[in-house]
User: Fold this.
Amino acid sequence: MKLILSLALTALLLAGCATDRSPPAWTLAGFDAAEWRGRPLAVECRAQDATLAAQCREQLAARLAREGAQVQAGATASLSVYLAQAQHMDSGPSISLGGWGGSSGGGGGVGISLPIGGAVSFQEVMQAQAQLLRAVDGQAMWSYTARTGMHADPQARLDRLLTDLLAALRASGLLPPAR
Assistant:
């Protein structure tokens, strides 16, 4: 029984480590999302890569417009997104779970192995930090961080981040529920 419980807890721990879930959104105390829904919104994307920033801005503005947001310059609030790219090292570690038993007893264990030598690879990951800023004073009213998994295609990473961001905006009440 201890072995089964130990294996179950280890599996839950490993499943938690494998996820790329983003933290919940933060809102300023007293912020009422419904009050800001439907107001004109400016969109800004920043990144080290100017092309990526332009793609983000165009795609986010188009997707927000499809959701019914009024995207325009000189708005009462702006949705500011900062994209960061990084390389994630994948060295190919493996985790093994095992157990044994017999008439004299039993046991179990967890083993971790790391390859030595040429098994290391690097993959690009991306993170988006978004803030809804009040235009009058630049006060952050809402923020959210989204992270991608290990997608090889930069466009797929950007699409995933924007999808997560729109879902967070919907969940906060800044966008109407999905149609």
Q: What stands out?
A: The longest helix spans residues 154-172. Residues 29-93+120-179 form a domain with the Double Stranded RNA Binding Domain fold (CATH 3.30.160.670). The first strand starts at residue 26 and ends at 27. DSSP finds four helices and seven strands in the chain.
